[in-house]
Amino acid sequence: QLPHPPGRRPVIGDLATIFRGDTRKPVQNALRTSGPLGPIYEIKVFRGKVVIVRDAELAAELCDESRFEKKLAPGVQALRETAGDGLFTAYTHEPNWRLAHDLLRPAFTREAMKGYHQTMVDAADELIALWDRSDRPVPVSPNLTKLTLETIGRTSFSKDFGSFSRDGQDPFVPAMARCLKRGQVRGAFAALPFGGALLRRGRQPYLDAKAYIDALIDDIIAERLASHDTSQEDLLGLMLHAAHEETGDHLDRLNIRRQIITFLVAGHETTSGALSFAMYYLATNPQVRAKAAQEADAILGPDPDSVPTFEQVAKFRYIRRVLDESLRLWPTAPGFARGPVKDTVLAGRYPMTTDDWCIVMSLAVHRDPKVWGDDPDTFDPDRFLPAAVRARPAHTYFPFGTGERSCIGRQFALHEAVLLLARACHRYDFAADPAYQLDIAERLTLMPDGFDLTMVRRTPRR
Ligand code: HEM
What we know:
Blueprint: H1 15-18, H2 26-33, E1 40-45, E2 48-53, H3 56-62, E3 68-70, H4 74-83, H5 95-104, H6 113-133, E4 138-139, H7 140-157, H8 172-189, H9 195-200, H10 203-227, H11 235-241, H12 253-266, H13 269-284, H14 286-300, H15 310-313, H16 317-329, E5 336-340, E6 344-346, E7 350-352, E8 358-360, H17 362-365, H18 369-372, H19 386-391, H20 410-427, E9 428-432, E10 440-442, E11 446-448, E12 452-457
Parallel strand pairs: 2-8
Antiparallel strand pairs: 1-2, 3-5, 4-12, 5-8, 6-7, 9-12, 10-11
Bound molecules: protoporphyrin IX containing FE.
């Protein structure tokens, strides 16, 4: 018997609670209102039930890989219609998860970022050129989403979406958005009576969008194979040619397509959200911005056009702390699902069978006063000074998830984000409209909404 929000109704359960306040923001509503329910609580809506953990000690226990593992929440299961057994949506027992994980891990080490560094620099240059040309405030999140889409498209399969050069969007972008929306709707409808019937409406446009994406990626794969070109060092090249060290197995073509879709989905809005939150905190904390600019000047020197080398990216320690702290307050993937490997009792109190699962709500755990002190909502990059990190218990900070199913793209996202933030702090003083109140949109991820910045060129100093 877990606590649940007050006012539960027969049949609809806690539906009214989820959508109390702004109906487009159920995650933020939960953060704001669920405190009185304690460390773990339950939400029921029609036939669906979700258990949510918001306490650091319980979360740390759920990160114990010997007892708990990733489970696919209904929202993630729903994405399987589009991404199948791609890394993010695969069950851990599916053979393609292990194969892809083992084959692709070397492509995501910190060292491997050397291979993507120039592509990241080129995409960042295009964004900087756009900002240089702007004579009015720039829309931060949409601009950064262009950047991250270009970076992941070019590094994954050498696809240039032309985000900075064309008016309007590459047709791939709305097609992908339609597929993701379908996943979200499917996840939500799974709990509804007659959900299946409701889902049949809107299926055809989804199928058309999916067919378009599949054909485009399959054509690129076929072209690459026909060219016998093994020199292209993008992820597609690796997936086509790498064999598993022990078994000699390769990824099949269907799975390669699914991995490309996965990288595009998992790797772009998460990173642009993280970058946008960091820009928000830099813009609204002048002392933090001054320190970040000082660090950028010290490393990059007085030339405003100088671009960080691969080795320099790791040296922006303060800027990295700004990013880490932004991801603490607003982990752009605000939770992840865990369940027991064998029947067990969580915290000696809550029995769980292997069919049970719960959401670790990182958004709330990252603000647990037991770990983060009595001002957990305050932005303070010094929480990530090495001594402070060492002093904290393990498994209390997990914007990238946990265990072997944690984010394979972590180094990729961090390299891309620090590179851009360093360039931005080096080149601009940026100011937000003082009237702007942080407004956060919830799609698959969290993202600042309606946030504009005026980018004023500055003169870097030694
Ligand atoms: C998994 C967050 C960037 C690819 C995850 C998970 C989280 C996460 C929380 C675990 C989900 C779960 O347990 O269900 C983030 C954040 C990012 C980011 C906050 C940016 C700041 C990226 C990038 C890529 C990527 C850039 C690709 C280049 C993946 C993949 C998985 C994953 C493939 C599934 C891994 C597996 O289960 O084997 N990410 N991610 N992510 N992420 Fe990321």
